[in-house]
Amino acid sequence: MHEVQVSANLGYLSGGTDLPEDGRDFSNEIGGICLIVPRRQTKKQKKPDTIPEEELDKEVHVKSIELHKGDNCERHHTDRYECTESGEVNGEEFGAELVVRRGDEFLVTIELDRPYDKHSHHLNIVFKTGERPLPSKGTFAVCTLNEKAECITDSGGHCWGVRLVTQDAYCITVAVYSPPDCPIGEWEMIVKTVVRGQTGSEEATWYYECPEDITILLNPWCKDDAVYLPDEELLKEYILNDSGVCYRGSRHQITAKPCYYGQFDHVVLDAALFLLRKGLMFRSSSSMGDPVMIARALSKIVNGADSNNGVSTGSRDGIHEDGRDTTASNGSVKILRQYMEDPTQPVKHGQCWVNASLLTTVCRAVGLPCRSVTCFCSAHDSDLSLTVDKVFMEDDHGDPVIPSNWLTADSVWPFHVWNEVWTSRLDLDNTNYDGWQVVDSTPQKRGDGLYRIGPAPVTAVKSGDVEVDYDTTFVFAEVNADVIHWKQTITGELTAIRKITDQVGAELCTHRPTGRPYRGAQYYMLEQDGELEREIITNNYKHEEGSVDKLAAVLKATKIYNVTTNPCEIKQQGSLQIKIQKCDDVVIGADVAFSFGVTNRGVETRRVRTVLMVTPTCYRGVLRDTVHKYRFDDVDISPGDEKTFTSCLDGAEAFEKIGGSPVKVNAYAHVAGDTTETVEDECDFTFHIPSLIFEGPCRCHRNDVISVHVSFKNALHIALTGCFLDMEGSLECEPPTTNPLIMQDIPAGETYETEISLRARKSQRRKSVRELCASFYCNELPVINGKYDIELDV
Prior knowledge:
Blueprint: E1 3-6, H1 10-13, H2 26-30, H3 53-57, E2 62-66, H4 69-75, E3 87-89, E4 92-94, E5 98-101, E6 105-112, E7 123-128, E8 140-146, E9 161-168, E10 171-177, E11 185-196, E12 203-209, E13 214-217, H5 232-238, E14 243-249, E15 253-260, H6 268-279, H7 291-302, E16 312-313, H8 333-341, E17 347-348, H9 352-366, E18 370-380, E19 387-393, E20 402-403, E21 411-423, E22 435-440, E23 453-457, H10 458-463, H11 472-480, E24 482-488, E25 494-500, E26 507-511, E27 523-525, E28 534-536, H12 538-541, H13 548-558, E29 576-581, E30 592-600, E31 606-616, E32 628-631, E33 635-637, E34 642-649, H14 651-658, E35 663-671, E36 674-685, E37 693-695, E38 699-701, E39 706-713, E40 724-729, E41 731-733, E42 741-742, E43 751-760, E44 769-777, E45 784-793
Helix pairs in contact: 6-7, 6-9, 7-9
C-alpha cells in the first residue's frame, strides 16, 4: 500500500474533532499528490511558509503493517471463523482476515523506514467505518500512541486507545483497544505521521492505509460490553455452537429438527454484517454498536414480509410453488449463500423455524448470544383483548360443529418458534429487564409498522409489565391469553361454551446448553420415554397457572390491553363434561382411532347428542376442510355416569386426505333438543413419520474418508417417488459436491439403504466435532430429517 502525503487543516488531521462535514477520505481523493494547505487564517495573519524538504525527510514513514491474525483471533475467540484462515472455496483462493471483538486489545506491528523516536516523530492511528465517518456517530477515531506499558482495558475506558508494547529496530508493536460500545463491522486502519513547520503554522501529513479491513464484533466475554455473558458453558452454546435443534409438532408430540447454523462458515459473517447494514438502511451510526438496535434490525431483515428484500419470504400454507414442503431447510448457510448471490430476491420459503435458525446464525456470527425458543400453543391475539376467541357456527342440526376462520382473526398456533438474545437493556434504565430478550423474525403482527417483534424483556413478560419496549404487549398475550370458545346461533347470537386457561403457552423450551451438535431423539411423546435435550423455560415467561402471582401479572396487563371483560371472570355453566383422549403414537399410513368421554355431573338423566370432527390445519392453526365427521346416536346418560364414544379413520384414507399436516380433533356434546348446554373438547396430533437413519463410526482422524450407512423405511401402502437427499454441515461428501443425492423410488413397505462417503471439511481446524444435517424429499411425504456427527482425533 502506498503512503499518501497531504497537508491540511490541523484542526482535524492532528486528532481533533473538528472534522469536515462530509467525512471525506483525503487520501482517496488526492491519490498521492502533495498539497500544502494553510491553517485557518484571520485577516491579520500572513501566508505561512512552505515546509523545507529536509524537514519532511526527517519524519518516519510506514512500510508495512502486520496484523498477527492467528494470535489475535485466538485471544478474541474468533479463530473458528473460516475467513480467519487462508483457504479455498469453490475453487477460489482467499487470504486470512482479522476478526476481533470490541472491548479488548489486539496487537499490530508497524514496520517503519527508520527507528521510531517518540521525541521527534509524531505518529497517530486513525480508525473509521462507513461511508460518512464522524466522531459524533462513533464511526471515526484518532488515537495518539501511548508510551505507557499498562493495559488500556484495565482502565475500563470507552474510548479508542493505542499503546506501545515493544520496539525493535525498525518495527514497533502496538496494542489497539476498541471501546466496548463501538459500532461493529469492518473498520479501516490508517497510520498517520505529521511534520510541523518551524513556525507551527503549517503541517504535512502522510497516511498509510492498512491494505486489509479489521472486522470488529460484539464481545460477550467483556464485562463492559452490554452483551456480557459470564457463564463460559453458556458461551459455548449461545456463541460458539454452530449447530442446534428446532422443536416442532405439538405439546404432546414433539419432533426435533436438527439444524446447522454455520455462523463460522465462509460468507456467513459477511452476510450477517451486510444484513445489519441493510436493516439499518445502510446508515453508519452508533446503532451499529447497540445490541438492542442490532437485534431489532436483524429481526426485520431476516424476513421479507415488508417488501424490504429480506432473506426469506414465507408461505402461509407451508407449501412451495412446486408442491414441496417448506420444512426443507437443513440450516442457514445455503440460504444465506443463495441470498447473497442476489440480495434483491428473498429465498423461498421461510417459516418461523427457518427464520429462527437464520436469526440464530446471524446473531451468533456478530457476537450476540442467541437461542431459538419454541412456544407450544402460541396465541395470536389480534385485538389485544387477552383472549383468543374461536367461534363455532351451528349446522343444519343445530350442532356447533362448523369452526369459522373468518369471524375472528384470533388463532392459536400449534407451535411458534422465536428467538431470545442476551443483552443488558441500557435504554430502559432498569437492570431488572437485563438478560434474555424475545426477538421474533416471523411475527404474527407488525411492530412499529414493520414485521418484527422485540427485543422484549422476558422478565417484563412474566411480571405483566407490558408497557416496556419493545412489543412486550403482544408477547405477553402469546403465552398468557385465555382461549374462549363461542357458539353462534343461526340468528347470530354468541354464547360462550368453553374457557381454557392452560392451553396457551403450554410449554416453552429451548435446546439445553451442551456446546455440541444435537444428539437426542427426533420424535418424542410426553407419555413415553425419550430424550430431546430440551430445556423447559416456561417458568421464565409465566407464573404457575392459578397462582396469585399469575393473577397479579394478568391484572396489571389488563390495564394496558383492550379488555372490556376480565377473562378471569368468565364462568362455565351446565351439567355435561367432555374429555377427548389424546391420540397415541400414530405412524403415517396406519389406521387412526379417536375416543372421547361425556360425563353427566347433574342430578337428572340427560339425553346427549355427540359429534366428532377431524380437520387438518396448517402450522399457523388455520383450519382446512374437515376430512372426517361422525355423528353418534343419541344416548341417555344417568347422573354421575360417563359414556365413551369411539370412531376410526382408515389409514389409507387418512393419508390421502391429510398427508403430513397437523390435525385438529374436536368433540362436541349437548343435550338433545337443547343446544344452550353445549360442551366441547379438542386435541392436536401429528403423524409419526419414520426417521432417516445414519449409522457410522463415532471417531475418525481429521483427513479420513468414512463410510456412513443411510436407511429409511417406507411405512406407506404406496411407493415413494422423486426421492433425493440434501445435506448440510461441517462434514462434506467425498468427492465434494453441493448437489443433492438422487435416490431410487422406494416401494411400499420396503427399506431403502445406501452408503455415502464423508470427510471433515479442511477448514475450521479447531472444531473437533463435525456434523451433518440431512433432509429426505419425495413426492408423497413431508420432508424427513436426519442427523449424524463424529468426533475428530486432533
